[in-house]
Amino acid sequence: MAAITMRLPAVRRAVGPAAPRGGEKHLVAPGDTITTDTGYMRGHGTYVEEEKLIASVAGAVERVNKLVCVRALKARYNGEVGDIVVGRITEVQQKRWKVETNSRLDSVLLLSSVNLPGGELRRRSAEDELAMRDYLQEGDLISAEVQSVFSDGAVSLHTRSLKYGKLAQGVLVQVSPSLVKRQKTHFHDLPCGASVILGNNGFIWIHPTLEHKDEEAGGFTTNLEPVPLSDREVISRLRNCIVALVNQKLMLFDTSILYCYEASLPHQIKDILKPEVEEEIVLETRQRLLDLEG
Amino acid sequence: MDCTLCKEDLRVDGRGCEDYRCAEVETDVVSNTSGSARVKLGHTDILVGVKAEMGTPKLEKPDEGYLEFFVDCSANATPEFEGRGGEELGTEIANTLYRVFSSESSVDLKSLCINPREHCWVLYVDVLLLECGGNLFDAISIAVKAALFNTRIPKVRVLEDEEGSKEIELSDDPYDCIRLNVDDVPCIITLSKIGYRHVVDATLQEEACSLASLLISVTSKGALTSMKKMGKGSLDPESIFEMMETGKRVGKSLHIALQKILDEEESLGTSRQKVGFLG
């Protein structure tokens, strides 16, 4: 039976002051004056006009000594060494793959910075170069780590660990990079039966948890067996929870996702994204997170 | 995403194959039109304005008014629409709308006639795509129906003096107007074939996975008025029949849901706070 719900749009309510948490953030909109003091230096996201420092993007003001920057709430991904990213291969070139990672420029993954199947370490030969498309081809999704950042901001990736490599079956959710919280680990096996990779670039990969991790494959084989319905239900629920958290602008990390998942359990998966249900679930999550902080 | 995700009646966002996303409908959002509506279906955002202007009837149908469709693909929707990028899609949608409304019964065009062979009302239906999030055609047809429901055409009278010259007189009361009967206005249902199943209301990702889709227009009584195949893939006859049956079934419930919300909005009248664009 087809379920079709239609409603009148709800009037947006003004958001009350956020939960008090040690000092309010200085938020600005484009064109807002940050300071009239000429002693400060102009950083990213600001410009000087009539001896005033003015914001050019919407976001939070950050101060490092005399340098004033505005960190945008919604921006493309700025790579930093050591970040975990999820990306999509867009091109196979000589000795490198081009990867889409939601940054301003395409990222590169060099042939010399991947683990070859079989796990042996050796110099990359011409044969390896010819077989590059067998390892990764256009459209494949990978998880990787940022190895270095070039002067123009482009990012070079590496997958020299068994936890990185090609991604098989799962669901990709694209969110704003500023909503992913930086943590020690971005690979989480959630107790609800699925795993998530929270890419620092805002790409989030949800996949069924693997029972046995294949050591030999080097991360290039993909298991294409059908995923059982129970796993898919968990993945869909997680996906909707993440979308709900993002809609309500809550930071994404393992605890917030798990709390949101638990709060959503009384509802059907497809109902999670209904505005009133979404609000209720996220409110409950927010409350539990605050309780956790104490 | 994979085609296996639509087996077992579970899609990536948890919907079943015949479920629509939550839709928001608001009418009378643009004050300088005769009727307007805005529909949000997931991330798809459509604004439709209907403007009634006086014109001359077409030669082959001297006692009927007519509808004109124009679709504007705003570059706000996707950067691809910038410049002339959206023109092709816009014409395609407009042509589809002409076909959907070509059947005699959809709108009572005779009621748009003022003076046979000389004057009639022309309804200019302007569609503006504000955001594309998949399933454009369905959302547009819902918005067009809602806007036509909202349309109010001023009443005019034709006065004839002794010499036979005619004069058109506009009613003094701005609330004295005619409304269209939208009971038979069809809605478009797009069925996208993914793997072995077909789904309604495909998201952008699902559209990318679908090789072929069937567009059918269905009236509130479940009558099929037009059909069109989209996409480069092929469909076998058996699945076409299956899709038509699904389309009719889904179409009926779509009309019921839409009519319910339109009646609800009308019953609230002016007591309801308008949301519009910034709300």
Short description:
The complex is a heterodimer of chains A (294) and B (279). Chain A is α+β, with helices and mostly antiparallel strands and 294 residues long. Chain A contains five helices and 18 strands.
Write down the overall mean pLDDT of chain A: 87
Number of strands of chain B: 14
Low-confidence stretches of chain A: none
**pLDDT < 50 stretches of chain B:** 1-6
Q: How would a textbook summarize the main sheet of chain A?
A: 5 strands, mixed, barrel
The total of helices of chain B stands at 4
Query: What best-fitting shape of chain A do the alpha-carbon axes yield?
Result: flat
Q: From the structure provided, what is the oligomeric state, counting identical versus distinct chains? A: heterodimer
The chain pair with the largest interface is: A-B, 32 and 39 residues
SSE-based structural type of chain A: alpha+beta
Determine the mean pLDDT of chain B.
88
Output the strand order for the largest sheet of chain A. Answer: 9-10-11-13-12
Spell out the helices and strands of chain B N to C. EEEEHEEHEEEEEEHEEH
Order of helices and strands of chain A: EEEEEEEEEEEHHEEEEEEEHHH
Can you tag this structure with a few keywords?
heterodimer; A: 294 residues; alpha+beta; five-stranded mixed beta barrel; 5 helices; 18 strands; 20% helix; B: 279 residues; six-stranded mixed sheet; four-stranded antiparallel sheet; 24% helix; globular; disordered N terminus; RNA-binding (chain A); S1_RRP4 (chain A)
Structure, explained:
The complex is a heterodimer of chains A (294) and B (279). With 294 residues, chain A is α+β, with helices and mostly antiparallel strands. Chain A has five helices and 18 strands. Chain A has a five-stranded mixed beta barrel with strand order 9-10-11-13-12. A four-stranded mixed beta sheet of chain A has the order 2-7-8-4, with no helix packed on it. A four-stranded antiparallel beta sheet of chain A has the order 15-18-17-16, covered by helices on one side. In chain A, helix 3 (229-247) packs across helix 4 and helix 4 packs across helix 5. The mean pLDDT of chain A is 87. Chain B has 279 residues and is α+β, with helices and mostly antiparallel strands. Helix content of chain B is 24%, strand content 32%. Chain B has four helices and 14 strands. Chain B has helices at 87-100, 136-150, 204-209, 237-268, and strands at residues 23-27, 35-41, 44-55, 66-73, 113-115, 119-131, 152-154, 156-160, 166-170, 177-179, 187-194, 197-200, 212-218, 224-230. In chain B, the strands form four sheets. In chain B, strands 1, 2, 3, 4, 5 and 6 form a six-stranded mixed beta sheet that branches. In chain B, strand 2 (35-41) and strand 3 form a beta hairpin. The radius of gyration of chain B is 20 Å and the shape is globular. Chain B starts with 22 loop residues before the first strand and ends in an 11-residue tail after the last helix. The A-B interface holds A 1-12, 169, 171-172, 226-227, 229, 232-233, 236-237, 239-240, 243, 268-270, 272-275 and B 1-2, 4-5, 7-8, 10-16, 18-26, 38, 40, 200, 249-250, 253-254, 257-258, 260-261, 264-265, 272-273, 275, 279. Chain A: Keywords: Cytoplasm, Exosome, Nucleus, Phosphoprotein, RNA-binding, rRNA processing. Chain A: It is found in: Cytoplasm; Nucleus, Nucleolus. Chain A: It comes from Falco tinnunculus (Common kestrel). Chain A: It holds the Pfam family S1_RRP4. Chain A: Residues 27-64 form the Exosome complex component N-terminal domain. Chain B: It holds the Pfam family RNase_PH.
